[in-house]
Write a structure and sequence with these properties.
single chain, 34% helix, alpha/beta, five-stranded mixed sheet, rod-shaped, Nucleotidyltransferase, domain 5, 132 residues
Length: 132
Protein backbone atom coordinates (compact mmCIF):
# COMPACT_ATOMS: atom_id res chain seq x y z
CA UNK A 1 0.00 0.00 0.00
CA UNK A 2 1.14 3.41 -0.89
CA UNK A 3 0.36 5.72 1.97
CA UNK A 4 1.11 9.34 1.26
CA UNK A 5 0.43 12.34 3.35
CA UNK A 6 -2.57 14.25 2.22
CA UNK A 7 -1.39 17.55 3.77
CA UNK A 8 1.95 18.73 2.51
CA UNK A 9 3.30 21.57 4.57
CA UNK A 10 5.03 24.33 2.61
CA UNK A 11 8.10 25.42 4.57
CA UNK A 12 8.78 28.48 2.39
CA UNK A 13 7.48 31.72 3.89
CA UNK A 14 4.74 33.52 2.03
CA UNK A 15 5.55 36.87 0.46
CA UNK A 16 2.08 38.39 0.73
CA UNK A 17 2.64 39.65 4.27
CA UNK A 18 6.01 41.09 3.25
CA UNK A 19 4.48 43.02 0.38
CA UNK A 20 1.81 44.40 2.73
CA UNK A 21 4.51 45.58 5.10
CA UNK A 22 6.52 47.23 2.31
CA UNK A 23 3.38 48.92 1.00
CA UNK A 24 2.56 50.33 4.47
CA UNK A 25 6.13 51.58 4.90
CA UNK A 26 5.96 53.24 1.48
CA UNK A 27 2.78 55.08 2.45
CA UNK A 28 4.34 56.13 5.76
CA UNK A 29 7.45 57.56 4.12
CA UNK A 30 5.47 59.35 1.42
CA UNK A 31 3.32 61.02 4.07
CA UNK A 32 6.40 61.85 6.12
CA UNK A 33 8.17 63.37 3.13
CA UNK A 34 5.29 65.77 2.52
CA UNK A 35 5.65 67.08 6.08
CA UNK A 36 9.40 67.72 5.87
CA UNK A 37 10.38 71.25 4.99
CA UNK A 38 12.60 71.71 1.96
CA UNK A 39 14.59 74.43 3.67
CA UNK A 40 13.48 77.17 1.32
CA UNK A 41 11.04 78.96 3.62
CA UNK A 42 13.35 79.92 6.46
CA UNK A 43 12.00 82.38 8.96
CA UNK A 44 14.60 82.85 11.65
CA UNK A 45 15.24 83.46 14.47
CA UNK A 46 12.53 82.00 16.69
CA UNK A 47 13.09 79.39 19.38
CA UNK A 48 12.01 78.33 22.80
CA UNK A 49 14.27 78.78 25.78
CA UNK A 50 16.50 81.61 26.77
CA UNK A 51 20.04 82.34 27.76
CA UNK A 52 20.65 84.40 30.84
CA UNK A 53 23.60 85.86 32.59
CA UNK A 54 25.30 89.22 32.59
CA UNK A 55 28.81 87.86 32.04
CA UNK A 56 28.32 87.07 28.34
CA UNK A 57 29.17 89.57 25.64
CA UNK A 58 26.52 90.33 23.04
CA UNK A 59 27.53 90.86 19.42
CA UNK A 60 24.82 92.35 17.24
CA UNK A 61 24.46 92.45 13.46
CA UNK A 62 21.85 94.63 11.78
CA UNK A 63 20.44 94.11 8.26
CA UNK A 64 23.09 96.42 6.74
CA UNK A 65 25.98 94.32 8.22
CA UNK A 66 26.79 96.87 10.91
CA UNK A 67 28.35 95.24 13.97
CA UNK A 68 27.76 96.10 17.62
CA UNK A 69 29.23 94.97 20.92
CA UNK A 70 26.38 95.54 23.32
CA UNK A 71 24.93 98.80 21.95
CA UNK A 72 28.26 100.25 20.82
CA UNK A 73 28.90 100.26 17.05
CA UNK A 74 32.15 98.57 16.03
CA UNK A 75 33.88 98.37 12.67
CA UNK A 76 34.22 94.83 11.27
CA UNK A 77 38.01 95.11 11.25
CA UNK A 78 38.12 96.03 14.95
CA UNK A 79 35.56 93.49 16.14
CA UNK A 80 37.88 90.55 16.78
CA UNK A 81 40.48 92.69 18.59
CA UNK A 82 37.83 94.22 20.88
CA UNK A 83 36.29 90.84 21.63
CA UNK A 84 39.71 89.37 22.44
CA UNK A 85 40.35 92.24 24.85
CA UNK A 86 36.95 91.80 26.53
CA UNK A 87 37.33 88.03 26.86
CA UNK A 88 41.03 87.97 27.79
CA UNK A 89 40.51 87.96 31.58
CA UNK A 90 37.81 85.27 31.57
CA UNK A 91 38.33 81.59 32.26
CA UNK A 92 38.44 79.41 29.10
CA UNK A 93 35.05 77.82 29.80
CA UNK A 94 33.45 81.25 30.43
CA UNK A 95 34.55 82.81 27.12
CA UNK A 96 31.16 83.13 25.50
CA UNK A 97 29.58 85.53 23.07
CA UNK A 98 25.90 85.79 22.24
CA UNK A 99 25.22 86.49 18.59
CA UNK A 100 22.17 88.69 18.13
CA UNK A 101 21.74 88.80 14.36
CA UNK A 102 18.76 90.37 12.62
CA UNK A 103 16.59 88.09 10.48
CA UNK A 104 17.62 90.03 7.41
CA UNK A 105 21.34 90.15 8.26
CA UNK A 106 23.52 88.61 5.54
CA UNK A 107 24.49 85.03 6.23
CA UNK A 108 28.13 85.80 5.45
CA UNK A 109 28.33 88.27 8.32
CA UNK A 110 26.79 85.78 10.72
CA UNK A 111 29.05 82.94 9.61
CA UNK A 112 32.05 85.26 9.90
CA UNK A 113 31.32 85.77 13.60
CA UNK A 114 30.83 82.03 14.12
CA UNK A 115 34.16 81.36 12.42
CA UNK A 116 35.85 84.01 14.53
CA UNK A 117 34.53 82.32 17.67
CA UNK A 118 35.77 78.93 16.49
CA UNK A 119 39.27 80.20 15.75
CA UNK A 120 39.52 81.90 19.14
CA UNK A 121 37.91 78.93 20.95
CA UNK A 122 34.99 80.98 22.26
CA UNK A 123 31.60 79.51 22.91
CA UNK A 124 28.90 81.12 20.81
CA UNK A 125 25.13 81.12 21.15
CA UNK A 126 22.56 82.62 18.83
CA UNK A 127 19.89 84.72 20.50
CA UNK A 128 16.41 84.20 19.11
CA UNK A 129 12.87 85.38 19.70
CA UNK A 130 10.62 83.31 21.90
CA UNK A 131 8.32 81.14 19.81
CA UNK A 132 5.23 81.62 21.97
Amino acid sequence: MDFKRQNNVDVNPGMSSMTDLVFLMLIFFILLATQVSTGLNVNLPKAQGSVGGASQITVGIDPESNFFIGNEPVAREELEVKLQALLADKEPDKKMIILKADEMAPTGATIGIVGMAKVNEWKIMVQTKNAK
